[in-house]
Specification:
heterodimer, A: about 400 residues, mainly beta, 4 helices, 16 strands, B: about 140 residues, alpha/beta, five-stranded mixed beta sheet, 5 strands
Amino acid sequence: MKKNILLAAVIAATPLASQAVDFSVKGFASVIGGMTTDGEEFRPHVKYSGGKYDESFALDAESRVGIQVRADITDKLSATVQVVSRGGYNWRPELPWAYIGYEVNDNVQLKLGRLKAPFYLYSDYQDVGYALPWISPPRNAYIVPIDAIDGLNVTTNFNTGRFDHVLEAWVGHIDDTQNKYESDAFGTEIDAFGFSYAPTFDGWLTVRYTYNEGDVDIYSDDVDLLNETLKGINTVYVNVDPDLIANTESKSQRGSFSGLAVRAEFDKLTLIGELNQLEWHTNLFPHQKRAYISAIYRATDKFTPYITLMKNNDSAGDIQETTAFDAGNPLHVGTAAAVNAQVAQGFGASDTTAWAIGGRYDLMPNVALKAEYQSQSSDISKSLRTAEDVSDTIRVSVDVLF
Amino acid sequence: MKNIKTVVFIVAALFSTMAWSEVAVVVHPSNVDSIDQSMVAAIFLGKKKSFPSGSSAVPLVLNDATTDEFNTKLLGKTSSQLQSYWSKLVFTGKANPPKKVSSAEMIELIKSNPNMIGFVDSANVTADLKVVGKY
């Protein structure tokens, strides 16, 4: 699927390549160093488990470099490839973007190929540190571990009175059966779609809503084993809740991601908030509800300090919430307890709060320096997974465009 | 020490001259569109890709300090803000920033292409160019 689309993109571009194709090459890089000050670990990116901070200063957890080549084949047709190499992925090259773009008119743009899923307010240029007010978008709210779509994106822009509207829709396939980023305990393959709508009022107030849904196939021996065990119990003892068995099926688990974001830009003050939710239509996985609000103040033309408050409210997937659960049946109670324990080991509930204070200094027109201190605390009684939920981290960065 | 003072004086004098100069937004003489400041800003920020008449608009910027003056006066952005703005569009494939040319190239290109729009220091305006506004 993905190879076919990339191949089609190359073929589409080839016949015209000998003509006057306008190439542009641009790059970005972020060198980010940091450490935790309390001896705990902090994982700055949900996708790249290779990137971690601990008590010794590290430069490779988030540092990255990206090169983008864009070929304008005609007025309307272009081909774009972006290669990113990052420390959190052992500096192996990745292709977050590789697509053919077609401008139907001034208001409608099509993209076909490898695309980054537009889940968040800052998805599109999440890697381009220079374009961000922070070192990275608040980690807690950027929760979907996979985001490389092979598919189609249609974006429309239009204007009504004092509003500018952006409406975006995408459909595609996400193939991570090999779990190559090791971002989770298992590989996944997802057929998904999503849309977002973002009106901006008078150029300063933007509200964005997005909904995305996927049919997820899980490649996990653990999940398969759990499911087989439950089926076995059902065969021997009968009457294990069928929902409970269905919940542990490794194929066609439906998950959804929705987000609401607001950005208000005043003269010197910018307020940004996002509320993001990752939910599953069964109880195997936890429901994650994450939010942050950030205030960014342009103190001078070059210096913009910020403060961010973050809040997580995750509920563990509870097998007991299934409809046919019978609290009077010891077999149900025992099985549910075993399943819940297994699920909690992987995810667990978390009630985490965090705050961060930092700033950006524009050193040169294409170089920005940033520093940030972040402190996270968690109600650890609710979770078995504490390492990434409790930590104090200090980070500094240099963001460059070239 | 004296030398340093002289240099400082000359630099200060240069800057004050620059601050007094005007930026003239120019198009091909055949362009009859009325192009106000907000239209200029929209075209140079990649938000509008055509003139009011419907023909495509191709903006050009200068490779000298006049561009900083243009950015501040017409777009209301510092060069860092503008870099950040364009990096968002560039790295998501939405648009490329205007091409940079020299003052001589600017005049040559504008007078030979009705789709182009640019700007020059108002002292450099020639009879081949139509000025749509001075800022």
